[in-house]
């Protein structure tokens, strides 16, 4: 019996670690989409933030500086997207894709240029500072739940961030205003809310959070830098936002689901299964499709909680 | 005095042509900054890129080689995007096309007369691509599942599957990766250098697609669905059927690209069958403003960019991703500039009376 | 304070609002041409004009949604600059728009406090709801603060809009066509609300194009025509006829010729039809009616009682849950939109730019969107471009569509011309039944007359017309018979000769046909 709990506990530990970057990303994207802006650039933003965070950590040996840099990177890319979609009213899908393409290429480039001469200016294969798990003595030895207390600080921060994100969105005046912008920007505008400022602000904030998610990958989870360190996580975040029904609390469930799949993958591979690794690696992507289908079908049935009504549509005032 | 966007009374043709060109120049400028910051002389780099692509017959033939898959996938993406169906899965559709073509060429060689292999492999490639796009299309048509993510996820699945094939299941004896060479009967004829007949197929299809958009009922209905699905339904157009049929063809085009890469170029399934052509195709399609003839031109330019990028990687020891970064940069100014089709930038002089910037404190009368 | 005193009061106060020389231009039109306006406390001012006269534009300038090109605004004697709705709100000016600015997925209370300046970071919702209840009692605007907007009827939503303004301390209230969405009885209740506001010292402007409202509700009336003020009068000093003349600039004899036409076979028949709305709630409950060739059947009723769903089940855009629909005797229940179109049914939808026309495509393309499937416009799947242009040119001329060229994108056309394009296409394609939904909504008098003329022409040409309209005048002048829809049921079908506003109003409000029309005071004409 104890063995099962210990086993489950180890799965849970990996799940939480794997899911941390997903939760940061999902909450960031929830805030962005709640104002009506669809940002498909998450994958590119995460990659760039991961490489920048690793480079900064490597040279400065300062993890906090690295986090700051990651946030700035994510935020900057998000800002470009905001400029294109809010001010220049470009197509949001294509704009997000362009950020991803640009971010992916840039991350590759930086990964081959920011490294030390000794490694051919590449960052691949280097060992840098990382966030180690901080065990809370006593708590961490409880069989199953103990997994919650064997995490690094970025994951611990989520224990506060997630409820805060929920409360801000649903209980404060700012949250009310930002939700209004995503449901009906025309009405929000008429009520005196600055639609443009809110869309910029929360797209930027979303980018910063995505950046932190990327930082967790290169500073805690992987750690280090390699091409495609995200493995499509940025896209899974987009699906998770739908799965969470744009509610920060539910984001945790989605991240656990996918973190869990990751953990199961690890376990199966470690145990030397006969299933080809390729098929195991396909799991998260196929799971995403299944999740999407279920969510869409369920939403159609219940007529209720759907996307913010104005998601993906540009807003213009003073149109004759 | 301030800058204001004023709505035009009609679409500006001039802007539609100028904006892509200007955005290309802007992207090159930003690229120059990036290059300079990372220690390379931008002008030398660009010169080397241009020379690498156009400076020799070999370079030119390489550009044509790369144009082929780019052209075909971009046509597929254009077709889907015209309907506002965001098919981001071209990469996966291409990969599956390559897989299917390889499979037929390698494993049916024994049972079938030699001359049938090439056409069958091509058909198989098209079918595989079509099915790979058809799945998400059916999900969208029946259950209204968002296509962006479904097509995208299948990219990862396809790449993983193909890796499994050429690393494990179909790996040739004695090699680390890659399948056997496909029999010569199944090769696409070469044209000049390494450029192969796939290019001609692509050019022909571009013209066909242009004609379809402009002159057929099907193309007309596609445009309506893309502009306004509500209106399409009201007009009696069967949207679901269009989605599925169009996406089958869109996927088939990308599948054809993959098949042609195997049948005409590499002659085996191996690493590097696709280097993100499916994603580049999106940039090409959007830059060409979803015009099939424009796609031909833009695909050529993009291929030159990639070939040039490969060349300087070898000559100047710059990472290959320079080409990718430049590519990624192209869309951003293009998107920023697209607004000028419908809006004009105007300088607003202060109007007497209600100038918002003069006379403070009056608000709290 | 007795009601009669308000006139004396307003005479010796300075105006709470003054607009001077307001000019506003849009591409191709001068919407406001040096407009002056005064408003006093404790009065109700009617802003009268036909569609396109500039009334809404003027008020949108006042409310900060538009920036005027010239002119000045004075509030309580001080010159002000209103750059946004927020500025207007700070000055105590608020507006209830025709299209309600409410967020369906939020509650009444949330909508009311949305965007308010002086709100604590964590708003105390129970206190807020209490305050709302108090206000709603004082002003006779009953509503449940914790209800979601999507649960409310249109009339209740309007009350929320008004409460929004009052809660935020508005002293100057603007109502844009407030009775457009109300039954005559609800409109009377609104009148009482206006009285209370007058008593409380608020100043109210209401925008309208209906003379009857002006006479019933206002103290003074300001008439706009083509962007200019043509008259400002005390309501008691004028008559509907004079107002109409001022509004239009000529004696209005808005009587279209409805010739007697032989009535033919039944082209449309609904037998006990049931349908649901988007939320899954019943929208049509056992509707039965017929339309014959050569007649216009009007459907009256306040929006939201099943009209939209009625049009949609007939045209194949909505599922029928029970009953049958027959076109020329053929059962078309739940057939695809294409089959319905091929049965000779045309549809002029309420949603012009979203459904009826594709803005991002040329006028010529839009004109052929019904006919492109058959020769001569296409042969075996290939479009005959030259024929299409010829056809488009002839339609443009026939229907007098003002467009720079047949290739101009539809979205660059004015509202009236977009509607003409839709009309041209639908009328040309119509073989049996024409379903017209709110066809003259938002159009100026010229365009409205043109629309009604076309409908009558179809009738004379032996087609059947189903006209769904919220404009009782329109129905009374054009329809042969008028049916009233209330909560998804047909309350009664009256021949035109027997229909009048009062009876229709009662049916629209749910009264049974068999009850005699109640005695009413101060009728709305």
Domain count of chain A: the total is 1
Q: Strand-and-helix sequence of chain B, N→C?
A: EHHHHHHEEHHHHHHHE
Let me know the average pLDDT of chain B: 87
What is the CATH first-level class name of chain A?
Mainly Alpha
* Largest sheet entry of chain B: 2 strands, antiparallel
Distance between the termini of chain B: 26 Å
* Largest beta-sheet details of chain A: none
Say how many strands of chain B there are: 4
Q: Given the structure, what is the number of helices of chain A? A: 11
Radius of gyration of chain A: 20 Å
What's the SSE pattern of chain A? Answer: HHHHHHHHHHH
Beta-strand percent range of chain B = under 5%
Distance from first to last alpha carbon of chain A: 71 Å
List strands and helices in order, with pairings.
The complex is a heterotrimer of chains A (320), B (365) and C (525).
Chain A: H1 2-34, H2 42-60, H3 63-87, H4 92-113, H5 153-171, H6 173-183, H7 185-190, H8 195-221, H9 233-243, H10 248-270, H11 277-302
Chain B: E1 2-7, H1 13-37, H2 42-54, H3 57-82, H4 90-107, H5 114-143, H6 147-169, E2 190-192, E3 195-196, H7 198-215, H8 217-227, H9 229-234, H10 239-266, H11 277-287, H12 292-316, H13 321-337, E4 343-348
Antiparallel strand pairs in B: 1-4, 2-3
Chain C: H1 6-11, E1 17-26, E2 29-39, E3 44-48, H2 55-62, E4 70-75, E5 78-80, H3 85-90, E6 93-96, H4 108-113, H5 125-138, H6 154-167, E7 172-176, H7 184-199, E8 203-208, H8 211-217, E9 220-225, E10 228-234, H9 240-248, E11 266-276, E12 282-292, E13 296-300, H10 307-314, E14 322-327, E15 330-331, H11 337-342, E16 345-348, H12 352-356, H13 363-367, E17 378-379, E18 382-383, H14 385-398, H15 415-429, E19 433-437, H16 445-460, E20 464-468, H17 472-478, E21 481-486, E22 489-495, H18 501-508
Parallel strand pairs in C: 3-8, 3-9, 6-7, 7-8, 13-20, 13-21, 16-19, 19-20
Antiparallel strand pairs in C: 1-2, 1-4, 4-5, 9-10, 11-12, 11-14, 14-15, 17-18, 21-22
Helix pairs in contact in C: 8-9, 15-16
